[in-house]
């Protein structure tokens, strides 16, 4: 979590409404902290009290705002990301499990997966698509067809669209 604001040097502990977060580093105009899940409402200013090692403390009313980092979509589970290969007439199982939210440590998570397979909408993290459904998406011949994945986190922030493809080949050549 990054708190953006000004007026605090890195303290030992930061208290928000009676709960404590621990700084892990400073950035220009802010402090990176580890905080309990659900501590920060999105884009709402918070009062910050810094307790320093020498025993002093200071409070800055409404001076920091939680910054949510966007999730990262990964539509291709293997490495290198080389797309999917299926035989003509086969089903396709998509796998978005390597998608991630950089704010998972503070309780944020990926709440929605939105795939586009040759332009047609498919929802879910790891959806299976039958051969008949693929054909209805226009995937009924050998060739390479586009797949994109967009993910959204629990606070409504979306990833950039990540792209891959499915290559459809003759049966027996997979």
How do you describe this structure in short?
The protein is 3% helix and 45% strand.
Radius of gyration: 22 Å
Helix content: under 10%
Overall residue-averaged pLDDT value: 78
Largest sheet: 6 strands, antiparallel, barrel
Work out the number of β strands.
13
Regions with little confidence, pLDDT below 50 for 5+ residues: 1-8
What's the SSE blueprint?
Blueprint: E1 2-4, E2 13-16, E3 19-27, E4 30-34, E5 45-51, E6 57-67, E7 84-87, E8 92-93, E9 110-117, E10 120-123, E11 128-129, H1 131-136, E12 143-153, E13 162-169
Parallel strand pairs: 7-13
Antiparallel strand pairs: 1-4, 1-6, 2-3, 2-5, 3-4, 5-6, 8-11, 9-10, 9-12, 12-13
Key terms for this structure?
mainly beta; 6-stranded antiparallel barrel; 1 helix; 174 residues; 13 strands
What does this protein structure show overall?
With 174 residues, this protein is mainly β. The protein is built from 1 helix and 13 strands; from the N terminus they run E-E-E-E-E-E-E-E-E-E-E-H-E-E. It has one helix at 131-136, and strands spanning 2-4, 13-16, 19-27, 30-34, 45-51, 57-67, 84-87, 92-93, 110-117, 120-123, 128-129, 143-153, 162-169. The strands form 3 sheets. It has a 6-stranded antiparallel β-barrel. The longest helix has 6 residues, at 131-136. The chain starts with a strand and ends in a 5-residue tail after the last strand.
């Amino acid at each position: 979590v990054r708190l953006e604001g000004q007026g605090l040097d890195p303290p030992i502990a930061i208290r928000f409404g009676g709960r404590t977060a621990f700084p892990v580093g400073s950035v220009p105009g802010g402090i990176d902290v580890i905080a309990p899940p659900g501590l920060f409402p999105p884009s709402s200013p918070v009062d910050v009290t810094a307790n320093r090692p020498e025993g002093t403390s200071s409070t800055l009313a409404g001076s920091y705002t939680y910054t949510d980092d966007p999730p990262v979509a990964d539509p291709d589970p293997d490495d290198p990301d080389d797309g999917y290969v299926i035989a003509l007439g086969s089903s396709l199982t998509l796998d978005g499990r390597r998608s991630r939210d950089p704010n998972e440590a503070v309780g944020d998570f990926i709440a929605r997966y939105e795939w586009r397979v040759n332009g047609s909408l498919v929802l879910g993290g790891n959806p299976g698509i039958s051969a008949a459904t693929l054909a209805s998406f226009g995937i009924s011949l050998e060739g390479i067809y586009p797949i994109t994945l967009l993910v959204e986190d629990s606070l409504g922030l979306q990833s950039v669209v990540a792209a891959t493809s499915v290559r459809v080949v003759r049966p027996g050549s997979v």
